[in-house]
Amino acid sequence: MAARLFCCPQPLPLPAGPMMLPVASFLWAGYKRHLSAPAQTIEVEAVGSSVTQFQPGDEVFADIGQHGFGAFAEYVSVPQDALTLKPANITFEEAAAVPQAAVVALQGLRDNGKIQPGQTVLINGASGGLGTYAVQIAKSFGAEVTGVCSTRNVELVRAIGADHVIDYTHEDFTQHQQRYDLIFDIVANRSISDYMRALRPGGHYVACAFNPTALFLGPLLSFNGRKQASSLIHKPNRDDLAIMQELLEARKGVPVIDMCFPLREVADAMRYLAAGQHRGKVVITVAHKRV
Ligand SMILES: NC(=O)c1ccc[n+]([C@@H]2O[C@H](COP(=O)([O-])OP(=O)(O)OC[C@H]3O[C@@H](n4cnc5c(N)ncnc54)[C@H](OP(=O)(O)O)[C@@H]3O)[C@@H](O)[C@H]2O)c1
Prior knowledge:
By secondary structure, the chain is α/β, with parallel strands linked by helices. It has two domains: about 5-100 and about 255-285, Quinone Oxidoreductase, Chain A, domain 1, CATH 3.90.180; about 100-230, NAD(P)-binding Rossmann-like Domain (Rossmann fold, 3-Layer(aba) Sandwich). The protein contains eight helices and 16 strands. Helix 4 (about 155-160) links the parallel strand 10 and strand 11. The longest helix has 14 residues, at about 100-110. It starts with a strand and ends in a 6-residue tail after the last strand. Bound molecules: NADP nicotinamide-adenine-dinucleotide phosphate (NAP). NADP nicotinamide-adenine-dinucleotide phosphate (NAP) binds near residues 148 and 189.
């Protein structure tokens, strides 16, 4: 059954079938300065008659990008296969900051980048919504991690585990002698030749932000196998969210939250994101009101 999102003053009658009607503490995490990702942390309010994996009261989180994308709302109806139990030791706000950004970083490093222990990995855009996960996930794979960010975020990126931090306002990593096994690029502000030069032989450049040259020339540049370039197209995936659940439960990763805004201030939240001064994630909170 197709999932639907809807806003309503009161919960609607629950349809039969594989639908859930979660309610309250619905949260939203921004992922791009002018856009937001459909990340939710919710408490299950009611379940459809064929739902077997969850029950009312369960605390779950999800990326509902493939189920109607999303909206700022107190209620959302989604199929059970989209949902994962929220790690018990993190708050609703923290959990809401996880689903899309963390899974994007995981898929980019693991699936595109084929990250291995001991590799040198550079994260371009290490202090933002995706980068703060990319740094921590790369460390959890045993990589030696270099984060790139501006001066005001150097200490944050170090604090979440980066072995080295490059302040892009003072230094240009593409002009250094240092070469990397893997570059995970959330900014796409350099030419493809700059990125390829910064790779070691056999290295891999992964464009997370849209980089047309990587998209169209990547297969050609990768043809001889000496260095590779690829573009990441993330797929919402409950199994990958479960991997993040384990990492968070083990405290091998922590969501970095800049600010939480109540739902009524969502316009302010969007303006704040658009200003580009945030670190990590911005979260919208919706008060839990049982009916
Ligand atoms: N491929 C996919 O499937 C997929 C999925 C989701 C999102 N995305 C992409 O991910 C991007 C958004 O990522 P995000 O949410 O992490 O963004 P964000 O929260 O706005 O973070 C941007 C990061 O870039 C850094 N930065 C800004 N200018 C820089 C420069 N000149 N050099 C190096 N770093 C610089 C910022 O550092 P300072 O704040 O310190 O300046 C910050 O760390 C978008 O392009 C979106 O399209 C891709």
